[in-house]
Design brief:
Elements (H helix, E strand, L loop, with lengths): L1 E4 L14 H9 L3 E5 L10 H7 L2 E3 L1 H5 L3 E3 L17 E4 L7 H10 L2 E4 L14 H18 L21 E5 L3 H12 L3 E6 L2 H11 L3 E5 L2 H9 L3 E4 L25 E4 L20 E4 L2 E4 L9 H22 L2 H5 L1 H6 E4 L2 E2 L2 H7 L6 H5 L1
Parallel strand pairs: 1-2, 1-4, 2-3, 4-5, 5-6, 7-8, 7-10, 8-9, 10-11, 11-13
Antiparallel strand pairs: 6-14, 12-13, 14-15
Helix pairs in contact: 1-2, 5-6
């Protein structure tokens, strides 16, 4: 199979979907890997490293002309022209928050497998985890930075100093993003609270952090109270493949501290903060009611080398399955089958169909 690795073109997105090690693994199995020239430069990977691993360096058009294209981020408008019925696209899609992309994929007939909906039998999301780990840890770093006065924040040091209280960090969601955000916040000396609807998860977090955080059941009353005293709020809510619910509402903003900071990691799924909107690394924040909003939808793109290697570690085994077996791999691997979002003009993921009122066809039926 011919596997294309195009250069990411989203604003300041420096990750790449394949490392030279990944290329070497695919080439040894008899596949041809077509890497767009300079695709890895942002992650510190040169064209010569790809060539040494067996890749052929090509133009953007040649990379997209492959049988399967492996990306990091969802296609953006200039890339829609490359979508076609005989293409297998393997990347993050986040379709539930992207109606225009969803319809473009359906019109083109492309087969789209989304990293974020590949799900194992135990409910784990193996291809979402590495970037959730990065984004969670970054969320605390970004919250600390934008809490500084020159960036529009209250001028509070996250960990405080002897004699001066640390910042209050409130994390909505106790999954992979939430626990990683908490690790960094606790490590920096902040006072941390995590809200989640899953009581066993709260028990687990309480045990893991050994009393160094406060756990709260996530409901409107507790969220309203927690954000009122927060210096930093981190949105870490995930419903696999679906749009995130608005848990921090517009009505709560005026009750928050002037210069407090919201970092909504769920922004690529619509966000769990009602007033959040996607931003970019070159213009990451805006202010509503005196509260700084950070809504960068590709946070891990700011640390591309770490992110590229972390992502490829997890995606490569699935990419090899798809390269070796094509669509048969989906029939043999339930996790990959759950990753299928579009196929030959049919929408195969129920949560996306519900978000936009589009007809839904089960993945197994679409492939039959």
């Amino acid at each position: 199979m011919k596997i294309g690795v195009p250069k990411e073109i989203k604003t300041l997105e420096n990750r790449v979907s394949m490392t030279p090690g990944g290329v070497e693994s695919l080439v040894k199995r008899g596949h041809q890997v077509l890497v767009q020239r300079s695709a890895g430069v942002g992650s510190g990977i040169s064209d010569s490293e790809y060539e040494a691993a067996g890749a052929k360096m090509v133009s953007v058009d040649e990379a997209w002309a492959a049988d399967m294209v492996v990306k990091v981020k969802e296609p953006i408008e200039p890339e829609y022209k490359y979508l076609r019925e005989d293409l297998l696209l393997f990347t993050y899609l986040h379709l539930a928050a992207a109606e225009k992309l969803t319809r473009a994929m359906l019109e083109s007939g492309v087969t789209g497998i989304a990293y974020e909906t590949v799900q194992t039998a135990d409910g784990a999301l193996p291809l979402l985890v590495p970037m959730s780990e990065v984004a969670g840890r970054m969320a605390t770093q970004e919250g600390a930075k934008y809490l500084e006065k020159p960036f529009g924040g209250r001028g509070v040091l996250l960990g405080g100093v002897p004699g001066v209280a640390p910042a209050d960090v409130v994390i909505i969601g106790g999954g992979t993003v939430g626990i990683n955000a908490a690790k960094i916040a606790v490590g920096m000396g902040a006072k941390v609270s995590i809200l989640d609807i899953d009581h066993p998860r709260l028990q687990y977090l309480d045990d893991v952090f050994a009393g160094r955080i406060t756990t709260l059941t996530s409901n409107e009353a507790n969220i309203k109270k927690a954000v009122r005293f927060a210096d930093v709020v981190i949105g870490a809510v995930l419903i696999p493949g679906a749009r995130a619910p608005h848990l921090l509402t517009r009505e709560m903003l005026p009750t928050m501290k002037e210069g407090s900071v919201i970092v909504d990691v769920a922004v690529d799924q619509g966000g769990c903060v009602e007033t959040i909107k996607p931003t970019t690394h070159d213009e990451p924040t805006y202010v509503v009611d005196g509260v700084v909003h950070y809504g960068v939808a590709n946070m891990p793109g700011a640390v591309p080398r770490t992110s590229t290697f972390a992502l490829t570690n997890q995606t490569l085994p699935y990419a090899i399955e798809l390269a070796d077996k094509g669509l048969e791999a989906l029939k043999e691997d339930e996790a990959l089958m759950k990753g299928l979002n579009t196929h030959r003009g049919r929408l195969t993921y129920a949560a996306v169909a519900e978000a936009f009122g589009i007809d839904y066809v089960p993945a197994e039926q679409a492939l039959a």
